[in-house]
Specification:
Number of strands: 9
Strand order of the largest sheet: 1-9-8-5
Radius of gyration: 18 Å
Strand content: 15-25%
Largest sheet: 4 strands, mixed
Structural class: alpha/beta
Order of helices and strands: HHEHEHEHEHEEEEEH
Number of helices: 7
Helix content: 25-40%
């Protein structure tokens, strides 16, 4: 038996209003997956992050990454830059689409994607395959922002879109700007160990209203395909 106390990653804090909202859902017979609470949650997230972004609430952060990669037109055998130190859900949607993750190691300051190794990896893949990777997925692990300025500069240099994994970083800021707002897309998670939890669920942060509408369309297509 360990003599050291357990350090919890995250513990949910109940405010006392949860049962009131659960009772309201039962009283109004509101058991369908969408409705005013979801619409309100999306609006609140938009206002919290920035009015420039559009939010689509989804079943998980993994689903958000998956739908973003679809909109970024990822095809089988494409290569996607991923952070090595992360949960497997960062890379799983890449494999869902038949693409290949290229893992980049961490730097010592934030434990997130090392910008120098990122640039090396891009040059290496161009040399080996003749093609640059299609997307860069940095992760803000444990709420610690990755080195945004350096990563954005490299992405702009090679004209590669950024898909942020901000699943653990809702509320974290880098030079006054919230994590989840500097990529073409970003994912949020509301799993039980996250900053805000709905027990499960996630969201995709989109740059435009058109991207948000396309996200909802792709999600509906997937849902109907399961029928």
């Amino acid at each position: 038996m360990s003599i050291f106390p357990k350090i919890w990653l995250s513990i949910a804090n109940m405010s006392g209003q949860e049962l009131q909202f659960i009772k309201s859902a039962f009283d109004t017979n509101w058991v369908v997956p969408l409705g005013p609470n979801v619409d309100g949650f999306e609006k609140d997230l938009e206002e919290f992050l920035t009015s420039e972004n559009k939010i689509v609430v989804l079943s998980s952060g993994t689903a958000a990454l998956h739908l973003a990669l679809i909109q970024l037109e990822i095809q089988p055998e494409d290569e996607i830059i991923c952070q090595s130190f992360t949960f497997s859900a960062t890379a799983n949607p890449v494999k869902y689409l038949g693409a290949n993750p290229v893992f980049v190691d961490s730097e010592a300051d934030t434990w997130n994607m090392d910008p120098q190794l990122l640039e090396f990896a891009i040059y290496d893949r161009i040399k080996v395959t003749g093609k640059k990777p299609k997307v860069i997925i940095p992760v803000h692990l444990y709420g610690m922002p990755a080195k945004r300025a350096e990563i954005v500069a490299i992405a702009n240099k090679f004209k590669i879109p950024i898909l942020e994994d901000a699943a653990e970083a809702l509320g974290s800021t880098y030079k006054g700007k919230y994590c989840g707002t500097f990529g073409e897309f970003a994912c949020l998670s509301f799993n039980g160990n996250k900053i805000i939890t709905t027990s499960g669920g996630g969201a995709l942060v989109c740059s435009t209203k058109d991207e948000a509408n396309k996200t909802k369309g792709h999600a509906l297509q997937w849902f109907l395909a399961q029928k």
